[in-house]
Amino acid sequence: MADNMVTLIGTLGTEPELRTTPNGADVVTFRLATNERRRNPEGDGWVDGPTSWFRVSAWNQLGRNVHASLHKGQRAVVQGVLRIAEFTTEAHGTSRTAEVKASAVGHDLAFGTTAFTRNGQPAAQQAPPPQPPAQQVPASRPAADEARALEPAGGGWGAPLGAEDATPF
């Protein structure tokens, strides 16, 4: 695994754009906005930290799946290799941008549900997804706060995992 492998959780800031390279490879690009979200130290509620923007590219089948599945404004989880690209323009001189070549992309299920369709298999042949029992959200608690209530007590959204934490799968 590369030393610069990252996992980002954020919101699509642009609609995924599908292009085909001259050698026939498909690539989808979009911008992902991430920011830390934490409890307001001066009272109840939540505050957003500064926003970081990442340019994400997904190639071939992953890219086609992203293009068919994700849209601007949706929450997503992106895993891939991070690199900082440097470029020069007449107007601004040298600038840097953070780019992620995605190896996995999906919806952030803390904010909604999604349906999965396997590549190359007609939807009619796939087993229907299991339906979870319906749960009622108390009227006194807005639905947007429900996902935030799941936040770990010690950290905000996107808090880095310590070295002792391991992915369970």
From TrEMBL:
Keyword Metal-binding attributed: no
Low complexity composition bias: residue spans: 160-169
Record flagged with keyword Zinc-finger: no
Record-linked Pfam families: SSB (PF00436)
Xref: InterPro entries: NA-bd_OB-fold, Primosome_PriB/ssb, ssDNA-bd
UniProt GO molecular function: DNA binding
Keyword entries, A-Z: DNA-binding
Region (Disordered): 120-169
Coiled-coil regions, chain positions: none
Superkingdom, taxonomy of origin: Bacteria
Assembly and oligomerization: Homotetramer.
Name of the molecule in the record: Single-stranded DNA-binding protein
